[in-house]
Amino acid sequence: MSSIIINKVSTEDVEIIQNLGIQTFSETFAEDNTEEAMKKYLEESFNTEKIKSELSNPDSLFYIAWEEDNPVGYLKVNTGNAQTELQDETSLEIERIYVKKSHHGKKVGQLLYNKALETAQQLGKSYLWLGVWEKNLRAINFYSKNGFVEFNKHIFRLGEEEQTDLMMKKNTGLDR
C-alpha cells in the first residue's frame, strides 16, 4: 500500500465528501438496516446542500485520507455549536471517521483519529467525545484501544428505527 496523506478539506471538495460518506456509510450499515431507512438517511445526510452547509461551518473541520489520487476515508470533527450533543467548549466531537471497506485494517482510521487528537490538542480542548452504534463492535474496539471509555448512551434515528449509540470520551492530556 502506498502512503496515506491526510489533507484538510476545502469547500470545493463537496462531491468527494458526499461520495465517500455515501459509500462508507452504506458499506458499514446497509446489511443491518432496511433499504428504505438507508436511502432516507443517505439522502438527508449527504445531499449537496447539507454537505456545503457543513463544510462552510467554521466550527466543523473535515480531513480526507488520500492514497495517491484516491480518497479512501474522511474525518469530521466539531467544536462549539456544531457539536451534535454535548456542546462543551472544552471538548471536540469526532462526528465521523469513515474509511472505505477496501482500506479497513490498513491504519487509515488510526491516521484520521490521530488527526482528530492533534486537532483537539491544537485547539486546547481537554477531551474528545463521540457516539458509536452499540452493534458496531469494530469501531467500539478501535476507540477502546485508543483509550476511549463509555460515559453515556443516546438514541440515533435511522429511518423509523431508534438505535442506541454508546457515547465515549477520552482526555487529550490538556487541562483547562
Question: Could you describe the 3D structure shown?
Answer:
InterPro entries: Acyl_CoA_acyltransferase, Bact_Acetyltransf, GNAT_dom. It comes from Chryseobacterium flavum. The chain is of the alpha+beta class. It has a domain of 123 residues: Gcn5-related N-acetyltransferase (GNAT) (Aminopeptidase, 3-Layer(aba) Sandwich), CATH 3.40.630. The chain contains 5 helices and 7 strands; from the N terminus they run βαααβββαβαββ. The chain has a 7-stranded mixed sheet with strand order 1-2-3-4-5-7-6, with helices on both faces.
Q: Characterize the main sheet.
A: 7 strands, mixed
> Which regions are unreliable across 5 or more consecutive residues at pLDDT < 50?
none
The top level CATH class name of the domain at 4-126 = Alpha Beta
CATH superfamily of the domain at 4-126: Gcn5-related N-acetyltransferase (GNAT)
CATH topology-level fold name of the domain at 4-126: Aminopeptidase
Structural class comes to alpha+beta
The percentage helix is 25-40%
Total DSSP E strands = 7
| CATH architecture heading of the domain at 4-126 | 3-Layer(aba) Sandwich
Ends: how far apart?
40 Å
In round numbers, the mean pLDDT is 92
Q: Going across the major beta sheet, what is the strand order?
A: 1-2-3-4-5-7-6
N-to-C series of helices and strands: EHHHEEEHEHEE
The rounded Rg comes to 15 Å
The coarse overall form would be globular
Number of helices: 5
